[in-house]
Amino acid sequence: MSIANDIRTAFSKRDNALNQLLLLNVLVFIGFILLRTVLFILTKDRNGHLPVLEWLAVPSVPGTLLTRPWTLLTYSFIHFEFLHILFNLLNLYWFGSLVREYLGDRRLVSLYVLGACAGAILYVLAFNLIPAFRDSPAILYGASASVTAVILAAATLLPDYTFSIILIGPVRIKYIAAVVVLLSIAGINGGNPGGEIAHLGGALLGFLFIKQLQAGRDLGRPVQAVGDWVTRLATGRPNLRVTRGGAATAAPAAAAPKKGGLAKPEQDEIDLILDKISRSGYESLSKDEKQKLFRASQR
């Protein structure tokens, strides 16, 4: 099977959001490498790609941003340095796997998108309100704000979950998240203040996203609604409708708590899951069972 077919298959699969986000970042990275190389060969200009970048990156000037609103999302898929994209993708994979396992694909995508928007908004505000940055027009690109949102969401969701780090050993992810935030704060007076400020915007969003979800409010519902609309537009599929008693009605939604929160599983289900853990261990649980166990913990 060709690489093109592999890519097409990855994007056609349902419940494959994490791999799709990773793949999008890689494809854009490769696309800019090819663009820079071709433009350099044709024009001998090493910065020939900058006009394209300026149309996809977030400008710090509000007036320019108003004419390029799409940059609030597109900037979060752009990288130029190998180590930059490598660390972002590794963190997205490690922490995104946790978020996806417990909250599902749709909320992972919502986190990524909202983290990008929060990071961009805080960046623009800082570069227009803080005197140290006010007279320094710049552009913002990279997935770091989105990835930081995912990291803080995972740490807020599962603070005592541990990762084994080389030369250090097991570390609870709440401490990893704390280090990420502290490094971003410390880096504001360094060489990339805009990026560090965007990280903090993503971090705040990730924390609030989980806290609001636990309180019964899903901040990602607008993102999911837009995604559903785009999917219907692209595929031409109408909303699913059923006929009952001779009248066409919208298919009822699955049982869910008020305001888009986390549905609480029945106690009998939880007892069965706990019995399974006692027999076979936590790792024997399915993705759905882990999600039910987490939702039950929010009672």
Automatic annotation (TrEMBL):
The chain crosses the membrane at residues 21-42, 72-96, 108-133, 139-161. It is found in: Membrane. One of its GO terms (molecular function) is peptidase activity. Residues 266-298 form the DUF6576 domain. Residues 68-209 form the Peptidase S54 rhomboid domain. GO terms for biological process: proteolysis. It comes from Hymenobacter sublimis. This is Rhomboid family intramembrane serine protease. It is a multi-pass membrane protein. Gene3D superfamilies: Rhomboid-like. Belongs to the peptidase S54 family. Keywords: Hydrolase, Membrane, Protease, Transmembrane, Transmembrane helix. Coiled coil: none annotated.
